[in-house]
Specification:
Distance between the termini: 43 Å
Number of strands: 14
Strand order of the largest sheet: 2-3-1-4-7-6-5
Structural class: alpha/beta
CATH superfamily of the largest domain: Vaccinia Virus protein VP39
Number of domains: 2
Order of helices and strands: EHEEHEHHEHEEHEHHEHEEHEHEE
CATH topology of the largest domain: Rossmann fold
Number of helices: 11
Radius of gyration: 23 Å
Strand content: 15-25%
Helix content: 25-40%
Length: about 375
């Protein structure tokens, strides 16, 4: 069985590395990384991947330029081997740079082809779709169609402990990627001076403690009749056994907003980190830590979504002062501002293009 762990642009290589660390042979490609295995392997990937969006089971791929060709591609898939007669099979779609650009038409044709195939195999004219859900994805990119089943259900950034994202959200998958790209080591004190709802802090704590990202949530594939529930349960228990909360290092955060801190503390409680991650109210302009060579990481306001650009530029300058007050410190920051380096008055040691949602950003390390 072939799977693709989908990922945001720029994170494909990280997801490939995560899969290799789990023991899979993986190959990065635009939009994710591919690997092979069985359904138990798909469960393991869902459980452990920190930077991927979903794990998709690829059922068919082929170049198609007409709706008739798409219909025949979908109809040729042995759906009766994968879906029980009462299965719910919602269809989602995405089209880019293809002759077939109507997403709704591609979804409709995919659904129709599935029904036609299963009507013949199950000898029934109607499907009530009252059973377990098998989300179907039809993706067309440069005239190549991919038909896949979503084994994850809710996106993998839904770890299960963050209930409200706040004003300037960052997905857990992007936060996990920032930490891995930053060069931070768990033996270094880490501080987020714009901690907001606490996503970076929680991802840092769990990275250091070797916690599987999906440890406390379920995946839609677990409801499928063919899932080996005993094997999945064993893999989850093995992940729980290697989780080392006692290894969480000095991780802390601060913010100028009392409302943001209240939300952050709520999320830390829900994640079981309220006794291990300290957060407090502080203005970045006066922030001074009593530790040597701290590692700062931040997702500050960009100006596009909250506040204004001038305020965001002033904040970028304030990061320069933060580094000046902490000799030997490092800073990893994601920003949509093309002039962040000019305002901080430093040249980044490394930079990488990433996307925060649809917003193109630079990830800079000073």
């Amino acid at each position: 069985m072939e799977f693709i762990a989908t990922a945001a642009f720029g994170l494909e290589g990280l997801v490939k590395q995560e899969l290799q660390n789990l023991g899979f042979e993986a190959k990065a490609e635009p939009g994710g990384a591919r690997f092979s295995g069985g359904m138990v392997d798909a469960f393991k990937a869902n459980l452990w991947l920190a930077c991927a969006d979903r794990v998709m089971w690829v059922l068919a791929e082929e170049e198609v330029t007409t709706f008739d060709a798409l219909f025949e591609l979908v109809k040729a898939i042995p759906w009766e081997k994968h879906l029980p007669p009462d299965a719910a099979f919602p269809v989602s779609g995405h089209c880019a740079r293809s002759q077939l650009m109507s997403i709704s038409d591609c979804q409709s044709i995919t659904k129709k082809a599935m029904v036609e195939r299963m009507k013949q195999r199950y000898n029934t004219p109607w499907f009530r779709e009252t059973g377990p859900a098998f989300p179907v994805s039809v993706t067309l990119h440069r005239d190549r169609a991919r038909i896949a089943l979503d084994t994850s259900g809710e996106a993998l950034n839904r770890r299960g402990f963050r209930t409200y994202v706040g004003e300037a959200p960052i997905r857990e998958t992007l936060a996990a990627a920032m930490l891995r790209l930053s060069g931070w080591k768990p033996d270094q004190p880490l501080h987020d001076p714009c901690c907001g709802s606490g996503t970076l802090l929680m991802e840092a704590a769990f990275l250091a403690a070797n916690r599987a990202s999906g440890l406390d949530r379920t995946f839609i594939m677990e409801s499928w009749p063919g899932a080996d529930s005993q094997a999945c349960r064993q893999i989850r228990e093995e992940a729980r056994a290697v989780f080392r909360p006692q290894d969480i290092p000095a991780v802390s955060g601060s913010d100028i907003s009392p409302e943001a801190l209240a939300l952050c503390r709520k999320h830390l409680r829900q994640a079981g980190l309220h006794d291990q991650v300290r957060v407090y109210e502080a203005d970045l302009r006066q922030l001074k830590l009593n530790v040597e060579k701290p590692f700062f990481i931040a997702n500050p306001p960009y100006g596009e979504r909250i506040g204004d650009r001038k305020a965001a530029d002033r904040l970028a300058g304030d990061f320069g002062g933060l580094l000046a007050r902490h000799p030997g410190a490092r800073l990893a920051v994601i920003s949509a501002s093309p002039s962040f380096e000019r305002h901080i008055r430093r040249k980044a040691n490394s930079r990488r293009r990433l996307y925060n949602g649809r917003l193109e950003c630079e990830f800079l390390v000073f």
